[in-house]
Each structure stands twice: as C-alpha cells, then as structure tokens.
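Q: Hi! First time doing this. I have a protein sequence and I read that you can turn it into a structure. Is that right? Here it is:
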Amino acid sequence: MSTPQIEQRANVEIYFDAAYDQQTSKSTSSLVCKGSGGRILASKSAFHSNVVSPFAAEAHAGLQAVRLRKQMGFTILHIISDSKTVLKKCQSFYRDSSIIRAFISYIQEIKSHFQEIQFQFIPRTENTCVDLIAKEALNKGEDFTWREGFQKPSEEKWSSYV
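A: Yes, that's right. Below is the predicted 3D structure, encoded as structure tokens:
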C-alpha cells in the first residue's frame, strides 16, 4: 500500500447530518468523508423508516459515520457535525438513558476499534453541504453511495454536492 493510501485510511474527517420528516417518521443520514487536504473520499446517504424524532435521526446519522470505518478501514477518525447533543453523548463514557441510547451505546462500543476517534461540533452554517445532501435524499426517498474512483451514472447528480 502506498503512503497516500495509508494516509487516507489513517486520518479522515467525516461530516454527518440528518433530515427528518415528522409526518412520515422517515429520515435520511448523510455523510461526507474527507481525506488529507480536504479531498472527498466518499459520500453516502441512507434512508430510514420508523424514526421517532429529529434527535433520533441525528443519532442514526452519527452511527452511520462510525460504521463507515468498517466499510473503508479507517483507524483514526474525526467526526464532525452540527448536532452538539449527539456529539457530547458520543464522547461520554457514561451509559446513556435517553431515547437514543441504543445508537449511543453502539457508537461507544465501536469507539474501541479505532486508534483514535474525535467528535467535533461545528455551526450549522459550516455543515451546509451535508445538510443539503440529507434534505435532497429525503425528498427523493433514495439512498446513494459515492466513492472516489467509482461512480455509477445514476449517481452523477450527487457529485455536484460534494
């Protein structure tokens, strides 16, 4: 494995956000994964049903962010979002008792698989790209995945967002 590939797998930033539709109890989680120099390595949106609240939608998006580790083999991860409460719960070592406890427990369990993992809050105005992807995916009702070097023709529309 060449040095740039090792760097990509070792130190990445994943931005996450969620969009929620209260009338249908559906949400989407969206992720944008950036490597060194801010290069986009991947983006993903996942559609979810039976979501109980916007808070649960954000927690589900956070879980999707740490799960990306398994798919892409990251060892050092920097997770960034505008969901301050979810990030604080992810950082905590205490057992969560809120409505999102299942998501938080799983995230806390996965944390041990990283060499290093950090959670960082950013204002919503700095997370607009990921927010836009989540809203668009919720409106369309579809998932998508894009990875550097691989793009299906049906996913070309998403490349303009990342």
